[in-house]
Design goal:
Elements: H1 2-18, E1 29-35, H2 43-62, E2 70-76, H3 82-95, E3 100-103, H4 107-119, E4 124-126, E5 139-141, H5 150-158, E6 167-173, H6 176-191, E7 199-204, H7 212-222, E8 228-233, H8 239-248, E9 258-260, E10 280-283, H9 292-307, H10 321-340, H11 345-352, E11 356-358, E12 364-367, E13 374-375, E14 379-383, E15 389-394
Parallel strand pairs: 1-2, 1-3, 3-4, 4-5, 6-7, 6-8, 8-9, 9-10
Antiparallel strand pairs: 10-14, 11-12, 12-13, 14-15
Helix pairs in contact: 2-10, 3-4, 10-11
């Protein structure tokens, strides 16, 4: 009986092949979309996230895949072109039929993707810190909300240990993440008694390269009596000329500390970090944190980067926060699929709440049961001369995300869980 079934199946396969039908082997894989800019202004930050996702997929496949099937990555390049993110998302969902997507860096790219994943009921894991003020059934946010990065960083700057800053420069790239984050920070600073005249706010376009004029303005603003700090939400390759000009102008951390929310180990790769020693970054992970899980993660990455001949990393392998968030996201999705026993989007979404993963940060990351955000620790690190970070402050444990900032009017009435379409 078994033999007859096998012959029938074989005959059917031959007939289908002769008729030009799709290969049945496609059913043996689960397609996974990777949606990151591999060219353009954001490639400096996003390319390595593509490689991190591929590493996690390779590891999972080496251990038998998911539900007995291998994961098949489908990599696209939206090229730092925000409308192209939406087009590539539609392609991944309708043509490539991916079960899930890992991708985006900027909030403008995520907001371009959002209506597409909601309309087509796709699934996106977003691995970068962002401004909050969003909650979608179809997105899991594995980066930080403002209360897991921006607010703790500014509280630190205002503290005695952080230098007791009284004046603030809000310096960002001109798009939704910096502008919304700075709206939140302005309200927070006002609640702490900081006057409007003690806040300077400046924006530059993506790809901006000449920071001489802005750094001169910062120097003048900081010379007007009170201790000044800079809060940087500059994104992409503009960070290289910004930090170079900061060094050229002699703005040292002890005089005017800069805390960055989008600069990690990867962005400092192309910069002489010696003049930047003591400047700060706030993240939920640094490569330099010491624990056995991170030791394993950094060793695996170094071996993978060398084996795959990854530019820059084969000789100097670096890990950073969005890489960790990408890695967590891939594994949590795998766990949710296994719990649901299906790649069906609605079933996976239902299985995601409460998923945990022992993270390289040294803490157990947990997906909140309701709000689609991770509970994450917060670290503040000082730049060292070798481009790594020395952790100077951290939370005792993971912090629950607040997608709706209490410093934005009306948020107290918003529900902390998604209900169909994203609430913006």
């Amino acid at each position: 009986m078994q033999r007859r079934f096998t012959l029938q199946a074989l005959t059917a396969a031959v007939v289908l092949a002769a008729a030009g039908a799709p290969a049945l082997a496609a059913d043996d894989t689960i397609k996974v979309g990777i949606l990151h800019s591999l060219s353009g202004t954001m490639a400096i930050s996003e390319t390595v996230l593509k490689d991190t996702a591929l590493m996690a997929i390779e590891e999972i496949n080496a251990k038998g895949g998911v539900l007995g099937k291998k994961l098949e990555p489908v990599v696209v390049d939206p090229a730092s072109n925000w409308p192209l993110f939406a087009e590539k998302t539609k392609q991944l969902l309708t043509q490539d039929k991916v079960a899930v997507m890992f991708g985006c860096w900027t909030s403008v790219s995520r907001k371009s993707v959002l209506p597409v994943v909601e309309e087509l009921n796709g699934l996106l894991f977003y691995p970068v810190q962002y401004e909050g003020e969003e909650l979608s059934k179809n997105v899991f946010y594995t980066g930080a909300a403002p209360n897991q990065q921006a607010i703790p960083a500014v509280e630190y700057l205002m503290s005695k240990d952080g230098g007791g800053a009284k004046r603030f420069v809000l310096l960002g790239t001109d798009y939704v993440y910096p502008r919304t984050t700075n709206k939140i920070l302005r309200a927070f600073l006002k609640s702490k008694g900081v006057a409007e005249s003690d806040i300077m706010e400046e924006y530059t376009p993506f790809g901006h390269a000449d920071y001489q004029t802005i750094i001169a303005k910062v120097k003048k603003f900081s010379s007007e009596g009170k201790k000044t700090a800079v809060i940087s939400t500059i994104n992409g390759d503009s960070n290289v000329p910004f930090y170079k000009e900061l060094g050229n102008a002699g703005l040292k951390a002890k005089d005017v500390p800069v805390v960055a929310f989008s600069v990690g180990e990867e962005e400092l790769r192309g910069v002489d970090t010696k003049p930047l020693v003591g400047h700060l970054a706030a993240w939920n992970y640094f490569m330099s944190v010491k624990n056995p899980t991170n030791d394993e993660f950094t060793k695996k990455w170094a071996a993978y980067a060398k084996a795959k001949n990854i530019a820059g990393h084969k000789d100097k392998p670096l890990t950073n926060d969005p890489m960790e968030a990408t890695y967590i996201g891939v594994y949590m999705w795998k766990q949710a699929v296994e719990k649901a026993k299906s790649t069906d989007v609605d079933k996976v979404i239902a299985a995601m709440g409460g998923q945990t993963f022992k993270a390289p940060s040294g803490f157990t990351a947990k997906m909140d049961e309701k709000n689609h955000h991770l509970h994450k620790p917060v670290f503040i690190g000082e730049v060292k001369s070798d481009g790594q970070f020395n952790v100077v402050w951290k939370t005792p444990g993971p912090v629950k995300a607040k997608p709706w900032s209490p410093f934005i009017e009306g948020n107290d009435k918003k529900k902390d869980e998604p209900d169909g379409k994203s609430k913006l």
